[in-house]
UniProtKB/TrEMBL annotation:
It comes from Frieseomelitta varia. The chain crosses the membrane at residues 344-366. Residues 1-26 form the signal peptide. This is V-type proton ATPase subunit S1. Belongs to the vacuolar ATPase subunit S1 family. Keywords: Membrane, Signal, Transmembrane, Transmembrane helix. Residues 338-376 form the V-type proton ATPase subunit S1/VOA1 transmembrane domain. GO terms for molecular function: ATPase activator activity. Residues 199-317 form the V-type proton ATPase subunit S1 luminal domain. GO terms for biological process: regulation of cellular pH. It comes from the Eukaryota.
Amino acid sequence: MMTQFCNICCFIFIFINVFQISPSHADNAVPVLLWGGSINSDLTSAVNPFLKSTSEEFDLFLRKTLENSPPVLLYIKDNLCIEDLVKHKQHLQKVISSDSLRYFPAVEKAVNTIEDLPSYNQTYNDYVDSISDGQLLIVPISNLDVIPETYKTIKDSSPNLIAILTGKACSYRRSERIKRDTYVNNTTEPFIVASDRVLFYASKPLLLKLGNNTEIELPLKPTVSDDSGKTPLSCKLSMKFNIPNSISLAFMFEVETPGYYTLKTVNYQFSDATVNEKNLTTNTTIVFPFNFSYHCSQNIIFENSSTILNITNLQVQLYTKLAKDGEKVFSDAYDCIGFTTIPIWAGIFVTAILALIMIWALTMIIDIRTMDRFDDPKGKTITISAQE
C-alpha cells in the first residue's frame, strides 16, 4: 500500500504541474481523499486528472462504496487544495499507507454531497472514541497534522471505519483543463453581382437591419439591372430580392467631380410600395476615379433613422461604356484607407522633430571657435580689442 500512496502523491504533483500551464478559472471544486474499510476493486479505477467530478458522480460513488452503511469519519477543512495535500503528505502517509485509498482531484460540492447521505445519522463531536455502523462523524479541522492521532483512536474500536478528507472551498486559484470547442468554418459565399456596367463584390451577404430590431440577410443572387442616372456617365444599380417579401436596393453612382464616381445614397424599397421607399446614406466617403475600382475592408453602413444596410469588405467598379464579352475583373483598387495613414504621419512627425534637434546640435558644434592666440611669457601681452 506504500507504493499506492506514493503513486497518488506523484499523481498529485503531476496534476499541479500540468494545471499550472493550462487556462485557469476559479470554482468551488475541492480534492477528496477516501480511505479505510474495504473498497471494491471495480471502484478504484484511475481518475482522469483533467476532468472535474460532478456532485452527482461523487454521490453515485459514495452510495456504492457505503452500501453496507459502515461508520464514516469526515474531516472538513475550511480551505483545502491539492497543494495542502502535497505539503502534509508525510503526516497523511502515517494513516493511509496500509489501507485502501481513493483520490478525487476536484469534486463539486463535496461536503454537501456527503452530508446529504440519507442512511446516515450525523454527529458533530471532536472527542469520540468509537463510531457505530450507519453513523457519520463530522470533525472540523484547521490543520491536517491532527488527522493521524484522531483517526488511529477511532480506528482501533471501529475496524470498518472509512475516513474522508475534504474541504468547503479552495481559496487558491484552481486550474483545470477546459475542453475547447471544435473550430467550425462558418465562412459563407461572397456576394457578387455583375451587370452590364457594374461589378459589385462583398465578402459576406448584405445585411439589412430594420427598425424593429429585425436583421435580414439578403440572398446571394438577386435580380440585377442598371440604368443611366442624372448624367450619361452616372449609373443606377438596382437589386431586387424576394425573401419572401420584395426588397429592392438601388445604388446611385453619380459623377460630381469630373473623372470620379461618387456613391452616397442607396434607395431602399420594401414590398414594391412607393410609400415604403427610403434613401439610405453613408458617412464614408466613397469616391474613386474612372477605370479604377473602389475597395474598403471596413464595414460600409448606409442608414437612415430606422433602416441600416451593412456591407462587409466592399469592392465595386463601373465601366464608362458597356463591357466587352468575357469575364469582368476588377482594375487597380482605390482604397478607402489613404496612403498616408495615422501611423505614417506619426512617424514623419517624430522623425522631423529628431531631424530638427540634430540640425540644431550640429549647428552649435560647428559654431564653436577655438583659441588661435596664446601668451608668450617672454613677449608682450596679447591685447584683444572689443571689435575682435
